Structures are given as structure tokens and as C-alpha cells.
Amino acid sequence: RGQTRMLNPKEPYGSVTVIIVTYNSASCILECLASVFAQTNVTAEIIVVDNASQDDTVNVVRSFGENVKLVVNPDNVGFGRGCNQGFAISSGMFIYFLNPDARLIQNDALALLCRALQLHPNWGLVGTRVVSATGGDESGPAADYPGQFRAKNGFARLPGNIAWVIGASMFLRREVFGALNGFDPDFFLYSEETDLCLRLRKLGHEIGYAANVSVRHIGAVSEQGLDPYHTWTRKMNGIHLFWKKHYTLQDAARLVRRDLRRARFRM
Q1: Which residues pair with 70 in a beta bridge?
Q2: For the chain, which end, N or C, has fewer CB atoms within 10 Å of the first or last residue's CB respectively?
């Protein structure tokens, strides 16, 4: 997939489009954008796609003027569709998806991610360390897919050892995301990153992990005030769609029945 290019430390490591999908993110988007503007040794393009926020998110983003490209959706189209909208108007050679309730800790984070993909041509995507707001709990890369060991699949033959990384911080080659046709729009929220990572590996790319890049993530800011049952339903719908798409119908049905049995037991 091409030769590794020697990097000149005096030159920018590459052009990066940072895509941020917002929904009721006024309380955190300012800090998120500030961490992106603080990045060094890269040429950064910032695109914010707002999914019909009911708070002051749009006005906060507009205060940055032409420094941020803003797309305002009249309705909430979901995370994956919003990311795809941002990609459609992007120009960077690398694409970085960053949650609005997350921020880059180091000023050279994007440069390090560019370098990681340039030095590892077999990687199509790279994840980062994602730590909690207090810097404690960490969401690392996953080694398997939901229900994988209870289903018939050929995942053992896929390249690399990482199955998927958290969607709050995902860095990809532009041509790879384009070849995947972006996120599957059938996923509204949850499991879309798991699906993207699996399809990426099926194309022959490995998933990398940059342990030297950290992102601080609050988590679930856009869901504050929502009925917990509504959030749970979205999560389960995402997992069930993933099973239906990538496993046999028999295996998917069996996994769903297992979830129902577990739910009855807990009740």
C-alpha cells in the first residue's frame, strides 16, 4: 500500500480534517475546539455537523467564524450520517473523528497520529488512548466483537489483532474511509464504529493503536436528561443490527434470545 515516507520534522506532517458531530454540546464544544486549534505541525481543517441541537451549540460554533465549517441539520440524523456529511465537504489527506465532549490532551496529538499512519502503511485506521474526565478510567482497543465466540464467523483470519476502537477518537486515511463509503447510515447511534472497523479489516487493513496520544472524554453529554430506557434501546438496536449484518440469521437470533434471557434474570 505504498512506501513509508521519511518525515521532515520542520514540515507539517500532513493535512487533517477534524470532523465533530454535535448534539446539545454547548457545555463542552468550546474546550473541544480549543484543543484542536492548539495542534502544531499539521494543517487542520475543522468541520462541525450539528444534529438539530436545542441548546446554544450552533451559536458557540459560529463564534469561531470561518475558522470552522458548520453544517446545521434541521433534524437529528445520527452520528454516522453526520460524520459522512462532514467527510463529503472535507479536503484533508487524513480524517479524524472526535466527539464534542472529548479534547486532545497534547498539542502534537494530530501530528503523532499522522506519523503513526505514515510509518505503518498496513494500518488503515488508528485509535488513541481515551481516558475519563478525571484521567482515570481508560477505554482501550477491543480484541473481539460482541458475541463473536458464540457465532460462526471467519474473524480469526482478519488482519491485525485489534477488532475495533472507540468512536470518540478515530483517525483514518482519507482513501480508506472513502473506500468504505463511510459509516453505515443504518446505525443511528452505537455500534457504528464496531461495524466500520470490521468492514475496514475485511478490506485488508489493520487497525493500529497510538498509546502515546491521549484524549480526555466526558462521555454521554448529548444524552443528559434523556430517559435511560431510550438510551438502552438505542444501544441494543445498534448491537442487534451489527449481529444481523455480520452473523448468520441463526446466530443473530440466538444472541438476541440470550440477551432476553439475561434481562429476565436481572428483572
Answers
A1: 48
A2: C
